[in-house]
């Protein structure tokens, strides 16, 4: 059930990675982290977005994305 819901909203969540407010990007990264830790999606679909977050202008977001990439 949860996986089905994620599939419906994943595009909007991933598009939030490019929002101009850093708080929105941080929340989107947190949601993606939870999705991946729970195994609700295959990581291959999300890795390019995590890599892009590694180049974010906000150092906190960069660090959090880099931390998850290492896991």
UniProtKB/TrEMBL annotation:
List where in the cell it is found.
Nucleus
**GO cellular component annotations of the record:** Scc2-Scc4 cohesin loading complex
User: Is Cell cycle among this UniProt entry's keywords?
Assistant: yes
What Pfam families does UniProt report for this protein, alphabetically?
Nipped-B_C (PF12830)
Give GO terms: molecular function aspect only.
Answer: chromatin binding; cohesin loader activity
Whether Metal-binding counts among this entry's keywords is no
- Going by the entry's taxonomy, the superkingdom of the source organism is recorded as Eukaryota
Q: Could you tell me the keywords of this UniProt record?
A: Cell cycle, Nucleus, Repeat
Family to which the UniProt record says this protein belongs: Belongs to the SCC2/Nipped-B family.
Instruction: Output this protein's name.
Output: Nipped-B protein
